[in-house]
Amino acid sequence: MNKNKKNIRVLILDDDKFMLEFVSHLFRELGVSEVLVAEDGRAGLYVLSAQIDPIDLLLCDVEMPGMDGIEFLRNIADQKYTGKIVLFSGVDADLLKSIERLAIVRGLEVIGILSKPVTIESLAALLKKLSSPTNKTIYPATQLKCIFDAEEIKRALVADQIKIFFQPKISAASRRVTSVECLARWQHEKYGYVSPDNFISIVEQNGLINDFTRTVLKKSVQQLDVWLQQGLDLKISVNVSMVNLDRFNLPEIYQEAVQNSNVPIDRVILEITEGKLGKDFAQSLDILTRIRLKGFGLSIDDFGTGYASMETLKYMPFTELKIDRIFAHNATEDPATRVILESSIKLGKAFGLNVVVEGIETAADCELVARLGCDEIQGYFIAKPMPAVEFAEWLNDYEKKNDRFASGDAQDNKRNNDVSSIEKILR
Questions:
Q1: 157 with 214, same domain?
Q2: 90 and 192 fall within a common domain
Q3: Which of 5, 108, 151, 261 gives 225 a disulfide partner, CB atoms 3.0 to 4.6 angstroms apart?
Q4: How far apart are CA 238 and CA 299, in angstroms?
Q5: CA angle 203, 209, 212 (to 5 degrees)
């Protein structure tokens, strides 16, 4: 068994003493040197509060007397717990997924769901996922919220500390890279790369959102300009805040950010989160329509998580619909998720929109969304967000692999056609 997990600390919560002993034994077999246990939620809170060193992995049963798993998760979310969590129980799979979603909404990082009985293979897979290396740390919102202030963010903008990472999207039909989503990262001197979840609310509340969005848009367009000159046929999408939808000069602000480049405006898609729409329908419609008149594409992001109505899709001038990751993750295994995913894709196509499914993490889900008729696919299964230099290297490798696969498919088709021709002759 793997003995390379000695620095990982695990806490198991379960009211079944045999299960505690059994799972602890499996972890020790896998080389985990420190396994702590608790028989209910209150005991788990006590164990957590007594620790000097952090708990890396928390296995939480959801059915426990006294304080159950849901109440326990609510408490550790309030305490800003930052370790990784696995839910395990014998309850119905749909109920477990609801609990997983609740934990994620509360800002907790759930990396898996286990059904009982637990096996050593399933625990080994979790430890592998837990210890997977990353090049840079992207701090979650629950870890860094309230650390930053407006003055520090102003200095970051002036000091050019806002960097852009790029996550590719591929065509579901050809598997070619068609576009990239441009994601802001604050290159902080102390914390490394920090995602906007940790500071965007401060940006919005202190009148910095226009400067921030302009910075992200300009940097993204500048990079696209370089790629187009290199012969890459790409589009970009940039997330924009709709806090300023009451600003009627927003179309001019975004147009100005693109004008000093050789990039055609129709190569730029602005992504607007669904939950931000509808506060003032007339103003939103006015501004978004003028943005479209400038030539930008418009994407309704995280579709399915907010309150978009048929009126929104009918009258707002969107060109693209992005289906949220919660309706793509594990869709091959979950019938309810698949129904929502398939209906959303059909809805987008019925409105004539380019349909993107994001959050794809497995080959099975990738194949499924392609079969269901989406246009583009995005997610960690394709690639994680990366700096421009890494993206160029990744794209070169990806296209070589794609060309080899396409060549293999063409040879298979030729062989099939040759066999078909021979069969016709023999007849």
A1: yes
A2: no
A3: 261
A4: 10
A5: 95
Each residue's pLDDT tens digit, 374-383: 999 999 999 9
* Domain membership of residue 181 as a residue range: 141-386
pTM for the full predicted model: 0.68
pLDDT digits (tens, 9 = 90+) for 58-111: 999 888 888 888 889 989 988 888 889 998 877 777 677 778 888 887 888 888
Same domain for 126 and 209: no
Do 117 and 172 fall within a single domain?
Answer: no
Residue 45, domain CATH:
3.40.50.2300
For tokens 């990239």, the residue is 180
Q: pLDDT of 219-231, one tens digit each?
A: 999 999 999 999 9
For residues 354 and 320, is the Cβ–Cβ distance under 8 A? Answer: yes
- What does the alpha-carbon distance between residue 80 and residue 193 come to, in Å, rounded to a whole number? 20
Report how far residue 408's alpha carbon sits from residue 236's, in angstroms, rounded to the nearest whole number.
30
Is the four-CA dihedral 105, 107, 110, 113 of positive or negative sign?
negative
The DSSP code sequence of 162-215 is: EEEEEEEEEETTT--EEEEEEEEEEEETTTEEE-GGGTHHHHHHTT-HHHHHHH
Q: How confident is the model at residue 393 (pLDDT cuts 50, 70, 90)?
A: very high
- The whole-angstrom separation of Cα 7 and Cα 116 is 26
The domain total for the chain is 2
Q: Which of 125-129, 213-217, 387-391, 394-398 has the lowest mean pLDDT?
A: 125-129
Residues 79 and 150 in one domain: no
